[in-house]
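Predict the structure of GOST seven transmembrane domain-containing protein.
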Amino acid sequence: MKRVTSDVLVLIFLTFNFFRNVSASIHEYKDEQFIPKSNAFFFHGGTEGLYASKSSPNASPDKPLEGKTFIRFEDVVFLRTRESANAKNEMQSRTGLIETIILEVRDRERIGDTFAKSNALCCTPKLAQEKFCTVGEVIIQHNQDNPLWPLRIQTFFEGKNQEANMLLTTVEINSTGMYYLYYMFCDPELKGTIIRGRTVWKNPDGYLPGRMVPLMTFYGLASLAYLVLGLFWFLRFVQFWKDVIQLHYQITAVIALGMSEMALWYFEYANLNSTGSRPMVITIWAVTMTAVKKTLSRVLLLVVSMGYGVVRPTLGGVTSKVFLLALMYFIVTEALELVEHLGSINDFSRKTKIYLVLPVVFLDASFILWIFSSLSKTLEKLQMRKSMAKLDLYRKFTNSLAIFVLISIAWVGYELYFNASDPLSELWRISWIIPAFWSLLAFSLLAVVCILWAPSSNPTRYAYSGETMDDYDEEAISLTTGMRVISDSGTKLERKEKKASVSTDLVTDQREDLEEDKLE
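Done. Here is the predicted structure for GOST seven transmembrane domain-containing protein.
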């Protein structure tokens, strides 16, 4: 049966762990406030997955922390209010206590009163009578297998001093796990105290948080995958450059953006791993590249579904609507990505982030509905015209897109289950598969588009040409009724009739497209 105090601490964890993006492995504290909880005040100093320290052949007296995992406290200062300081006796050596507590997520139930079943995080005189805690300190039930953990570091105010400086301390981590750092105090007279300084968190191979380590490798491999796809596309592009249509240039742009996006994220993670901080410029470029690629990818699927370059030469009156939807999607995606990758956990509230997620979900749904609606109209038009080659192409595209949508829905369900079943990030070592899967799915869909619309020596199988010439080739429709091709003059007359038929059908197609645009 869970203890009451355990439930209180779980709520603390959930509050700060709903969005698990941290700004870096160097956690900066800039005059942060302590939050009241039960009979204590606390500040959440950081959360990261850390791997156990390992022996390194490069370790030396000059580099004692080589290959070590640690949390280092640098220039951490606590500032209490002037009223709180003046209320103390100047002759007293200890007039206020701030406790720094580091715990592994499995030990969360060891913080607070788990024996007397009270709602207390701090020791009270009544609890002290039972002789298992000290009045004014946070209650910690130490792990019998590791008596030092959860770890407590105490910092005292002296006399009437407003500041208390935490000693430069480095805590080595020898067990792999998700670690939480809290600063807490129990004295209500310290209400209004703020904290400034920073902590440095480091894994054995660098400063990259443990749950992000596999992503750096993934982004490196993904950039190589885009490079291979781009090389394939480039060779086809050069080989059949005379038969290239406008759609091929848009596909080329999406491939280039995907390759740039993956490369930028790889270098951004590599820099974070080596320095411990995220370079603002590279991060903004990577975020913007992601937003641009997501937008253009959706626009590409939409215009392909509309039959652009295949059954219609232009988008006509829908161009402004497509542009407006793309612009809105780029803006909300850019805002969400900036919040997730540049903001720390305490910068934005849960409600603020939900407000940014909802527009992205709504616009994604709008894209999906429009894409399938356009696909339905395109397939209907191709069936009416009996363009069998193009109809087969679009059926393959429709089936592929439907499979990807079903996979996406299934993965969304799994992601919701994963987050609901792991509120405290205990599965942090496999959480990287969530963002990696979406990148892999986007790459796979782009590869399908590249295969279906690859440049070839037979562009008439998908290129727009007024449909007449395609229909003539596929269905052997005779355009020479009443003619006998027995001489050069007869041949010329036949060609004139074909051209006249092409012109007539072209005008008809354009009228149909204009009518569809008006309806849309």
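Confidence is low (pLDDT under 50) at residues 1-24, 344-349, 467-508.
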